[in-house]
Amino acid sequence: MGESDEHAALEAMNPEKVDYIDELTGLSEPKGDLTFSSSNTVLTMPDPEMHSMGRAIAVFLLFICLIGFLNGVDYASPDSGLVRPDEFVYRLSLTAPDETATFRGVVYDDEQEPLENATVYISWNDEGIWNSTEMQTEKDGSFSFERLDPGLVRVDIIVERDGYRDVYGNRVLLSPPAMIEPIGFTTIDFSIPSSEEFASQPCTNGADECEIRNIDMTPSQMDHPLMDPGASSIYITIGFAFMGIALIATGFTIWALKSGSVAILRTAAALSIFGMGHYYAACCFGIVAFLLTFAVPKRYIPIQQS
User: Fold this and answer.
1) Which SS3 state, helix, strand or coil, does residue 36 take?
2) How far does CA 219 lie from the centroid of its chain?
């Protein structure tokens, strides 16, 4: 029996099934022998190992994290390092709004007794013009100024005693507003030297006796003026934050090397930007590393049959 006769016999036995298959596929049942062929296509999967360029970026990131960590150590050591708390606060004060500083404190004599009616005279340079304000201390020696401009000011404590006017001068850094606070607070107490110490100072006019006696501390405070102790604590806290960011970025970098993930490597690069570093070195290098992560090529390896 021929092939056509076979097909006709099959249709005669079960015509609904044959018609259903032909209708479903849109094709009639093949009449010839089926043949199979293979191509050169190879199944692949992403390479679990990171590309050599990615590993080089990871090493670069570890160096950036080290810079950020050292920057944090510098901030956490207020008495040493490249950046000091007063320099940090002064930079913030340059961009702070005017009249956002409050200055408070207590004036004591050389025996640590509060001084009443001592004059606290504040002067500051405002774009070449010297402004000033003053007030008398209360019975407990306290004083409080509001609506001052943040930044460097000169504070003279004037005490009249024994027929003399003793002037004790200091250079003070008024803190700007911090974080979400609208006002910056500066609290500094002053201890006035004894009358004998003032008497030992030479008169400014060269005379043997002078009515106004001065002890000026500002020359020794040019590099590091007096400032609120609380500002130093904020500065130290920022240092520990820098160190924490650097350690987290280091952890992500090591994780990326072990997992081969470029996404994790990119996350580490983004974190390293906030480590800042001295002269913003870690920030700049971190941006470069972040951009380089987009150039890491993807590699694929063939799937091996077991």
Assistant:
1) coil
2) 32
pLDDT digits (tens, 9 = 90+) for 90-111: 988 999 999 999 999 999 999 9
Cα separations in angstroms, 106 against 103, 202, 260: 11, 27, 61
Q: Nearest Cα to 150, choosing from 190, 106, 90, 105?
A: 90
Q: Which of 159, 192, 223 is the last residue of a domain?
A: 223
Element (H, E) at 132: strand 129-136
Shared domain for 123 and 203, answered yes or no, is yes
Non-local CB neighbours of 240 within 8 Å, separated by 6+ positions: 72, 75, 76
- Residue 137 in contact with residue 121, Cβ under 8 Å? no
Kindly write down the DSSP assignment for every residue of 137-157, as one continuous string.
Answer: --TTSEEEEEEEPSEEEEEEE
Total domain count, the chain: 2
Give this prediction's pTM.
0.67
Tell me the per-residue pLDDT of 204-234, one tens digit each, with 9 for 90 and over: 766 777 888 999 999 999 888 999 988 888 8
Beta carbons of 64 and 285 less than 8 angstroms apart: yes
Q: What is the DSSP letter of 299?
A: -
**Percent helix, percent strand, percent coil in the chain, to nearest 5:** 40, 25, 35
